[in-house]
Amino acid sequence: MRTTLHVNGKLVEVDVEPRLTLADCLRHELRLTGTHVGCEHGVCGACTIIVDGQAVRSCLVLAVQADGASIQTVEGLAGGDALGPLQTAFRRHHGLQCGFCTPGMLMTAHALLQAEPEASEARIREVLSGNLCRCTGYVGIVKALLDARSAYARPHTREAR
Fold it and tell me: Most buried by CB count within 10 Å: which residue of 38, 44, 110, 129?
């Protein structure tokens, strides 16, 4: 089936089998291998991407279901060769070890901070609880999100009086 996606700001058309998952479409058809596939049951969070502004487990969505959607993958977080602020914070606070869960963590964190740029530590821990990491213990990851919040802060506007 012909499917049109807006991936990381670029319009792409791809022919896919109706049963192909969005994760496999991104990885195998579009060669965006930053999206990792772990459990293939939506439990681990490694395949998390952003679809129309919402964090989504791409192993649970068929590519044809995303027809016309705006998709952001971990490759879309960086500005060219420069790391984005969230990626920089992960690096600064050693928020990764083996790196397998990192793309999903980054995308979950990005979605959270876009929606809630002043998220508390408790809220960050709650949201990240859906992404499994066997290496880090989450300490560096939580510190990275707390540090990155300022990059997502919305400018405060004063009401006209």
Answer: 110
Residue 93 CA: distances (Å) to CA of 2, 132, 136: 42, 18, 11
pLDDT at 75 over 50: yes
* Structural domains in the chain plus CATH codes: 2-76 (3.10.20.30), 85-152 (1.10.150.120)
Q: What is the pLDDT of residue 80?
A: 81
CA nearest to 90, candidates 139, 49, 141: 141
* Encoded tokens for 93: 């606070």
State the number of CA atoms in the 13 A half-sphere of 61 facing the CB.
21
| pTM check: above 0.85 | yes
How far is the C-alpha of 70 from the C-alpha of 5, rounded, in Å?
Answer: 6
